Amino acid sequence: MRTNQQTTIKSPATLSGIGVHSGNPVEITLHPAQANHGIAFLRTGTPTGNDRFIKAHHACVSATELCTVIGDNETGAVATIEHLMSALYGLGIDNVLVEIDGPEMPILDGSARPFVQAIDAVGIVHCGAARRWIKVLRPVRIEAGRGFAELRPIDRGFRLDVEIDFESPVIGRSRKALDLTPAAYRREIAPARTFGMMRDVERYWKAGFALGASLENTVAVGDTAVVNPEGLRFADEFVRHKLLDAVGDLALAGLPIQGAYRSYCGGHRMNVGVLTALFADRANYCLVEGQGSRRETALAEIGAGLGLAAFAAEL
């Protein structure tokens, strides 16, 4: 597939399940969309009774506490969007309308793999328009406590380098770096599941979170071992899931990024926060457009700035 061409899915794909925090049933349908549509959500079943169209964009983020939420509770919000957004970005899909009949995305098995499988089942097609990228021109960095997140310029592509450091001996400290391509995403990142500490469960339940969490959709971490009888899918599944989340949150830039992302002890809030820092100064970035086929790697700069106006998952 020509990476310089915008893409969408070939036909609709429907998935259903429960929300990991609400525990309520929900159904989504991914619809093909035309060029330059981007990723957007059509929220039905809102408190007002009116359907709401919400762009998947960092400016629309309303919460990042244990998941990433866009929209608002009064007129219609969609929570826990990061796994689907990660799958779309990881597979290189530019344009999709996500119809959803509830306030939270289905958690499915806790990873992005079911979304990838649903997309692969219907196929990906070109939209007949050149793809655009956000090119990082100079470093931006945010810090919170001992953690940080930063974006830096690179010659081509999108590289992620994510490091976690937990007091839990079961999780510990680990780091994973990856040049994002659809093949690498499918193999290395999509199957990694969300995780949570068993000792935190009661506290989150009292706060109204993790009501739908179970061993079917979450890696449960005890004091000395993983509780799930099947164990881990990867020896470093925890950091891989953090990388999965970072891909999904950074997809809220609105266009794919040409740059390098690095984080230490990050999460949804910092992933979204580094986008805010990037777009705070038009000297930090520009918009570039791909020309020609995969072998023709030239990029045309078409603007000094782009007017583009965080489960992370620890249960």
Automatic annotation (TrEMBL):
Cytoplasm as UniProt keyword? no
- InterPro entries named among the record's database cross-references: Ribosomal_Su5_D2-typ_SF (IPR020568), UDP-acyl_GlcNac_deAcase (IPR004463), UDP-acyl_GlcNac_deAcase_C (IPR011334), UDP-acyl_N-AcGlcN_deAcase_N (IPR015870)
Pathway as given in its UniProt record: Glycolipid biosynthesis; lipid IV(A) biosynthesis; lipid IV(A) from (3R)-3-hydroxytetradecanoyl-[acyl-carrier-protein] and UDP-N-acetyl-alpha-D-glucosamine: step 2/6
Chain residues that bind Zn(2+): 83, 241, 245
Q: Active-site residues?
A: 268
The record's catalysed reaction(s) read:
a UDP-3-O-[(3R)-3-hydroxyacyl]-N-acetyl-alpha-D-glucosamine + H2O = a UDP-3-O-[(3R)-3-hydroxyacyl]-alpha-D-glucosamine + acetate
Q: Which Pfam families match?
A: LpxC (PF03331)
Q: What are the entry keywords?
A: Hydrolase, Lipid A biosynthesis, Lipid biosynthesis, Lipid metabolism, Metal-binding, Zinc
- Names of the cofactor(s): Zn(2+)
Write down the superkingdom of origin: Bacteria
What EC number(s) has UniProt assigned to this enzyme?
Answer: 3.5.1.108
Q: Keyword Lipid metabolism: yes or no? A: yes
Query: Which family, according to UniProt?
Result: Belongs to the LpxC family.
Task: State the protein's purpose.
Answer: Catalyzes the hydrolysis of UDP-3-O-myristoyl-N-acetylglucosamine to form UDP-3-O-myristoylglucosamine and acetate, the committed step in lipid A biosynthesis.
Designated name of the protein: UDP-3-O-acyl-N-acetylglucosamine deacetylase
Natural source organism = Methylobacterium organophilum
Its ancestry begins with: Bacteria, Pseudomonadati, Pseudomonadota, Alphaproteobacteria, Hyphomicrobiales
